[in-house]
Design goal:
By secondary structure, this protein is mainly alpha-helical. It has a single domain (about 5-370), classed as Glycosyltransferase (Alpha/alpha barrel), CATH 1.50.10.10. It is about 55% helix and about 10% strand. It has 13 helices and nine strands. The protein has helices at about 5-25, 50-65, 65-80, 80-85, 95-110, 110-125, 160-170, 175-190, 225-240, 245-260, 285-300, 305-325, 355-370, and strands spanning about 30-35, 40, 130, 135, 150, 200, 210-215, 340, 345-350. The strands form four sheets. A three-stranded antiparallel sheet has the order 5-6-7, with no helix packed on it. Strand 8 and strand 9 form a beta hairpin. The longest helix has 22 residues, at about 305-325. The chain is globular and about 55 Å long.
Length: about 375
């Protein structure tokens, strides 16, 4: 890590201590967003179910605190009903089982966890649309809903489950599907300036790209910052797993866009193209995710580029620690304040988000050299 950064050690220790305190109430359940200082608990089928156990695993790997491991394993067990029930599964299988079962298998060699992760990978691969070369995002959760042709930028972060499955099983099909999906991201999701679309609608029969749709950003042509963060990190991971230069080039382009639009405190607005009066609303989760992705991008590039990405990622994490942390507030369970989940729907705005907490801890782990990292 070079010269010792006192703030990194402080941030790690405070994250560990606060998480240990939170385990007393949260236990082996599934926090999502903090309301009034208390994390709301979601059901184990919700897309964020992996982030709390993933954070427990990350902290356990470095601290050896057995109570963290035990709770992470309980969470994983509680998710079996979702995995085996099938009907609630969508593309977020990657988020959910990479941070639980792949994490467990990497750290402990647990064979049951390997099987769970392989089941999840098979279900995820089964969502691949051959004509459009994309992983379908969602199921029809409401009567009459048709979304067979929908893919979203978030799914970049689900692809590591497929790369892991090929590496673990020796079967190349999973990685082939992941590459095809990422090639579609290159072709349709990334604009020339490095900003990204959140949602693309395809014709599910022919595979034709039809139109971008408004998602969690301000509008179809805006620049939702967490979408940019998913792209930076997901493309960098695709390069890590394949060595294909086009993924690295795209990751750098999306990083350039993101970094060039950060405000003075280095933490992004929730949408870089929202009307000016809405840009004071930040998304600390986008900052934390992008920072961890930039630290991996620094490893992948090396040299002057690597130094640049590492410095910028570290600056973002430091700002999150110093300006957005709730370290000294015993009435707040979240680690990071000022996350924005879904502004258009009016849900979880300007609150701590569990995925922001996870990526912040993961970013610190990268700075401290504490692996393994489950996406890799």
């Amino acid at each position: 890590m070079g010269k010792k950064c006192i703030w990194v050690d402080e941030a790690w220790d405070k994250s560990l201590r606060k998480t240990l305190r939170n385990t007393a109430r949260i236990g082996a359940r599934f926090p999502h967003a903090s309301k009034g200082g208390v994390y709301e608990l979601a059901s184990p089928e919700w897309w964020t179910a992996g982030f709390w156990p993933g954070m427990l695993w990350q902290l356990y790997g470095a601290s050896g605190r057995e109570e963290l491991k035990a709770l992470a394993e309980e969470c994983e067990l509680a998710m079996d009903a979702v995995l085996d029930g099938f009907v609630r599964l969508d593309h977020d299988l990657g988020f959910m089982w990479t941070l639980t079962s792949v994490a467990n298998y990497k750290l402990t060699g647990n064979e049951t966890s390997r099987i769970r992760a392989m089941k999840a990978a098979n279900y995820l691969a089964g969502r691949f649309n051959l004509k459009g070369r994309y992983i379908r995002a969602w199921n029809p959760w409401h009567e009459g809903e048709r979304n067979e042709g929908v893919a979203i930028i978030d799914c970049c972060m689900n692809m590591p489950l497929l790369f892991w499955a090929s590496r673990t099983s020796g079967d190349p099909r999973y990685a082939q599907i992941a590459e095809e999906h990422m090639n579609t991201v290159l072709q349709h999701f990334i604009r020339p300036d490095g900003s990204v679309y959140h949602i693309i609608q395809f014709n599910p029969e022919t595979g034709e790209m039809l139109e971008p749709l408004g998602g969690q950003g301000y509008g179809p042509e805006s620049a939702w910052s967490r979408g940019s963060a998913w792209a930076i990190y997901g493309l960098t991971l695709a390069y890590h797993h394949t060595g294909k230069a086009e993924y690295l080039t795209a990751a750098q382009r999306t990083a350039t866009f993101f970094l060039s639009r950060l405000p003075e405190d280095q933490v992004p607005a929730w949408d870089f193209r929202a009307p000016q009066e809405l840009r004071s609303l930040r998304d600390s989760s986008a900052g934390a995710c992008a920072a961890s992705g930039l630290l991996l991008l620094a490893q992948m590039t090396g040299g002057e580029d690597g130094d640049f990405y590492r410095t910028r990622g570290e600056q973002m994490l430091k700002s999150l620690y110093e300006r957005y942390g709730a370290w000294d507030d015993p009435e707040e369970e979240g680690l990071l304040l000022h996350g924005t989940s879904n502004y258009p729907q009016g849900t979880n705005i300007d609150v701590p988000l569990i995925y922001g907490d996870f990526y912040f801890v993961e970013g610190l782990a990268r700075l401290k050299g504490y692996g393994p990292f489950y996406w890799e």
